Amino acid sequence: MSDAGMQHPVAVIIGMMGAGKTRVGREVSQMMGLPFKDADIEIEREVGMTIPEYFSRYGEPAFRKVESDLIRRTLDEFGGLFALGGGAPMTPATQDALADYIDGGGRVIYLQADPKEAMERANRGGGRPMLDGGDANARWMRLYEQRDPVFDRIANVHVRTHGSTPQMAARKVMNMIEERVVHVGVVSADDYNVRIGEGAMNHLAPVLGDKPARIALIHTQPVQRHSDRARALLRQAGYEVSDIVIPDAEAGKTVTVANGVWERLGAEGFTRSDAVVGVGGGAATDLAGFVAATWMRGIRYVNCPTSLLAMVDASTGGKTGTNTAAGKNLVGSFYTPAGVLADMTTLASLPNDIFVEGLGEVAKSGFISDPEILRILEEHADELRGFDGATFLGTPLEDVVAELIERTVRVKAKHVSADLKEAGLREFLNYGHTMGHAIEKMEHFRWRHGNAVAVGMVYAAELACLLGHIDRDLVDYHRSLLASLGLPTSWNGGSFEDVLAIMHRDKKARGNKLRFVVLDGGPGRMMHLDDPPADAVEEAFHRIQH
Ligand SMILES: NC(=O)c1ccc[n+]([C@@H]2O[C@H](COP(=O)([O-])OP(=O)(O)OC[C@H]3O[C@@H](n4cnc5c(N)ncnc54)[C@H](O)[C@@H]3O)[C@@H](O)[C@H]2O)c1
Ligand SMILES: O=C(O)C(=O)C[C@@H](O)[C@H](O)[C@H](O)COP(=O)(O)O
């Protein structure tokens, strides 16, 4: 959408006659302070007569030509909200124009009203030539059967308004417009989108598609209310849903738990065309992805992360897995999701300490790739540290957090797109994790992952400083930034020998040689550190002990 001198609509609304496109479109435009255009009104203005008059005088093909020309023009010169007439998207020229608009970053929103309600509304209003001549309800239904699959295909945003007032429907549309989308293109797997915003979960059915009949909805108990919402959306869309509750947090990331889920899938007749939806923190989405990767050698899955850490990191990138007695994430696979729906409304129930933990991975992405993240963290450290889910939604802090999530997911997408199976570049996402995973293991997983990574980054910074790759100021900056966010920067829970033994089982290690990723010169400049001197490895450990 960068072509000079042109403007494009913020969104285009399509839907059946009577779906409420004009009514809802006007509400949204008021809420967002945007201009609104209705294609039918613009056409009447242009041709100087009503649409029924134009139809009866010149016929439908002539009308469709006027309509598609006007739509093409408006898509290139109008910067507000644009609602199309009911039949407009059926014209091939309009479909092409909408496809170009989407390619340039546009949103075509299919307003999916309850067919019965929309039909009654359309027939009450009159002035609709497509319903003239006989049983209007039967005509509306016939048109619906023809148009619904086409609208479904050409729209890139779907909003179900069943049972909603126009105001409620408008809010849903507005949330979709304000949504942030990060595209993850992976060389050896299908591309997918990470959708971030209030109501992102509403994309569940379109992302899953119409192949699955059954969905395994895998979640933990603390996120029951969010999985209830997912279940309702899935059932409304006609899927058979198996609700599968797994043990919370790291206790859920075991092969024993995965085996229990496989048994359920077997008993309930899950086939290769069925799918998994994971709802919860990173532990739940890691396990859900692992089950999807392994059931019948791989079925479709969608992640709905509900913790900050899962939104910014765990749900995206396709690392799925379980822990073993020997350590963290030792059994798993690289298996990409079909989509990630980071619904910001779920953060309303997130406890403060689990939100703060997630900031560890956000800061990591700032250090390895996007210094703007560090700037935002510094500027908003007090508000972020004081996060309170109960009062969070709708505040300026929500925009700050959405920006941080989008930026962090972009960093992740950049690394996994180029190196899904972690041959080199992707290892930079592991900044702070060699020591972080050792701390988690030593603490029997009672330490939260993001907290352990925060200490692990201080360790990596100390090591880099000892070996002359960064200066002391940057090490101090690690400590001061992380502490200002409420994250720990030291650990004193075990001996160097025990920690070293665990670090030797890190997935980056090769043979008997340790491999770290460290900063080289400053934020955004990363290097691999192979087999560093043993005394530096130990000295850096002592420096994080206090
Ligand atoms: N696959 C990856 O690339 C990747 C990346 C980073 C982390 N991880 C993994 O993710 C896990 C850490 O994720 P996490 O920090 O989300 O921890 P977690 O999954 O253990 O969740 C923390 C706690 O918060 C609860 N919770 C989550 N969302 C909630 C909500 N909205 N409301 C109320 N409670 C909620 C969970 O049920 C749990 O009790 C670790 O296992 C880590 O190894 C994986
Ligand atoms: O996606 C990656 O690659 C990462 O390393 C992201 C990490 O933040 C994440 O904690 C990941 O689960 C660690 O993977 P592991 O392979 O070191 O177990």
Can you walk through the features of this model?
This protein has 546 residues and is of the alpha/beta class. It folds into three domains: 11-177, P-loop containing nucleotide triphosphate hydrolases (Rossmann fold, 3-Layer(aba) Sandwich); 179-350, Rossmann fold, CATH 3.40.50.1970; 420-543, Dehydroquinate synthase-like - alpha domain (Dehydroquinate synthase-like, alpha domain). Helix content is 49%, strand content 15%. The protein is built from 23 helices and 16 strands. The protein has helices spanning 21-32, 39-47, 51-58, 60-77, 92-103, 115-125, 136-154, 166-178, 204-208, 224-236, 255-267, 282-294, 308-314, 352-368, 371-379, 381-385, 389-392, 396-418, 433-442, 449-466, 472-484, 496-503, 534-543; strands at residues 11-14, 36-38, 81-83, 108-112, 157-160, 180-184, 192-197, 214-219, 240-245, 275-280, 300-305, 319-324, 327-334, 339-343, 515-519, 526-530. The model has no long low-confidence stretch (mean pLDDT 94). Nicotinamide-adenine-dinucleotide (NAD) binds next to α12, α13, α14 and α20.
